[in-house]
Amino acid sequence: MPIYAYRCEACGFAKDVLQKISDPVLTDCPTCGKATFKKQLTAAGFQLKGTGWYVTDFRGGQGGTTAPAVSTSAADTAAAPAAPAPAAPAASAATGSSDS
């Protein structure tokens, strides 16, 4: 269930309320009793949990800085050098032969 922040415009009383999305909006202030209790607009906070999510996900570069923007124009793609191919494994390790 989401937590909503409310504030009374008359007396300034503020309160966080745990409510279902389908619950009606609160209007009466619990402190002064006036119908000026309004829901506040707040930043949503969330946390990714479970396997597969790590603190370092979506961070690029060294030291946790953000990755540089990638250009997608055709001129940049044509001018970019090809990436080197990965090195092939040694022949003796690849054959897996054994002397039994």
Descriptive tags:
3 strands; alpha+beta; 100 residues; 2 helices
Measured between the Cα atoms of the first and last residue, the distance is 65 Å
- Output the helix-strand order: EEEHH
Strand content of the residues, in percent? 5-15%
Look at the helices and sheets and give the structural class: alpha+beta
**Numbering strands along the chain, what is their spatial order in the largest sheet?**
2-1-3
The main pleated sheet reads as: 3 strands, antiparallel
Low-confidence stretches: none
What is the tally of helical segments? 2
Mind telling me the C-alpha Rg?
Answer: 29 Å
Number of strands: 3
Label the overall shape: rod-shaped
Could you tell me the mean pLDDT? 73
Could you estimate the helical fraction of the residues in percent? 10-25%
